[in-house]
Give the backbone structure.
Amino acid sequence: MKSIWLAFLFLAAWVPHHPSVRAAPKTSSAKWRPALPGYRYQFPRDHGAHAAFRTEWWYFSGNLTSKSGGRYAFMLAFFRSGLRPPGAFRRPRKSRWALENLYFAHLSVLDVKRVRHRYFERMSRGALEEAGARRGGLDVWLRDWRAREEIENKVRVLKISAQDKGISLSLHLLPQKPPAVHGRSGISQKADGPGRASHYYSFTRLKALGELLLDGRRLRVSGTAWMDHEFGSNQLTKDQIGWDWLGLHLSDGRELMLYLMRKKNGGYDRNSSGTLVDADGSVHHLPLRAYRFEPTGRWRSPRSGALYPMGWRVSVPGVGIEIRVKALAKNQELETKGSTRVTYWEGAVQAEGRSKGGQVSGTGFVEMTGYADGARPMF
C-alpha cells in the first residue's frame, strides 16, 4: 500500500520504544498533521518528503524478464518515520547530528526459475546525510540505496538502485500513465474517524529497463513496475490487525489495486477500498462492496509459523473482471528484525481470467501484514 506497500502504518507507534531511540521531550504543542479531505496534489512536488506527516514510504515493485527469457521480480521500499513534528523546538536544529527521522529500507529479489527469494534490510538515523528524503521532488536514499527522479531528453525518469551480498539492481522506470490518486477527496480512508487516512497515489504502470546482477550473472532486464507513495500520521485503530493488498498490471492495459483492512474479529473494515485505472489513465474508486478478494488456499511459513492466504479469487463485477491470482513462489516472506522488526509477506504474483468478456492475464504483487509477530502490522 506499497508499495507497499509498496510503500506501512504502525511503525510510528513502535519507534519511541526502539532501544536506539529516546522519546522526544515535550517542548511545545506542535502536532503531526493529519491526512484530511481536500488535499490538492502537485507533481513533482508530492513525490518528495512531507515532514509534517509522521509516517511516509516510497515503494517500488515489478516483474522483469532477461534477454534469455529468465523471470525475476523485485521490491524496493524506503520508509521515513518522524520522531518530532516540525516546530517541536523553539529554535531551528542546525546540527548535522540532529535526529528528526528514522529511515528504513527493504529490498527483495525473486529468481522465479530457481524459486529463490532473497531480501535485505537497512536502518539509519539519517545523521550526516547517511539517509534522507528531500522535499519538492523524488530523492530518497539510505546509504547507497536510492530512488530519485531525473529529466532525460525532456522526459521524467525514475531511477532506483540497490545492492547487497551478490545482488545489484539498477533500473530506469518510465511512467506510462499519470499518477493515480487513490480514495476520495485526496485521502485514502483506512478506518472511521478524521485523520484515520493517508494521502496515497501510485504510478501504476512503469516501463522498467535496466540491469540485475545476480550471483555473478549480469542480466539486462525489462518489464513492468509499480510505484506507491503514501504519507499520513494516524491511520489505523486498535481493532485492526493488518491488511491484504493487491496491485496488478492486466494485459488489457488496465491496473487494479485492492486492499482489505483486517479486523481482530475476523471481518474487514468497511473503509477498505480499491482503484481501477483504465488503459487511458482514467481513475475509478472502488468501495468495498464493489469487489471480492478471497483466498483459495493457505501456506504456513516454516520460519515464522505464520499462516498466510496463498492463491486468490478476485472479482470486480461492475467492470467485468473475474480472475484467479497465484504466487510465483510461496516463500516470499520477509523477517525484518534488523529494521522495522515486523514479519510480512510481500511477493510477486500472476493472474489469469476474464475482463470485459475476453481472456486476460496479469502480473503484480501481493502484500500481507499482521499474520506473524503476534499479529502486529507494520506502522
Q: What stands out?
A: The chain has one domain: 11-19+31-368. Confidence is low (pLDDT under 50) at residues 1-27, 375-379. The domain at 11-19+31-368 is CATH 2.40.370.10 (AttH-like fold). The two ends are 12 Å apart (CA to CA).
